[in-house]
Amino acid sequence: MQSIPQEYIFSTYVTSNANPNEFFVEFFLDEPGGNLPIKVTRNFDELMDFLDSFA
After folding, report:
1. Pairing state of beta strands 39-43 and 22-29?
2. Using CA atoms, how far apart are residues 54 and 3, in angstroms rounded to an integer?
């Protein structure tokens, strides 16, 4: 297993959208002052692409 060089905190939320496949996952750096998301994914494909970038 490859280790990720940085630890992340994430939050998820859904909105009242007509597309049931759309959702948001925000990734934040796990460090002081890490209050702005460094990556926002809006659907499953974007989320998988982001996670695959660490593989």
Report:
1. antiparallel
2. 8
What does the alpha-carbon distance between residue 14 and residue 33 come to, in Å, rounded to a whole number? Answer: 25
Residue 27 neighbours by CB distance under 10 Å:
19
**Secondary structure in 3-state letters for 5-47:** CCCEEEEEECCCCCCCCEEEEEEEECCCCCCCCCEEEEEHHHH
Closest CA to 7 of 27, 24, 22: 27
Tracing tokens 């460090």 back to the chain, one arrives at 31
pLDDT in tens, 9-40: 888 877 777 777 788 899 988 888 778 888 99
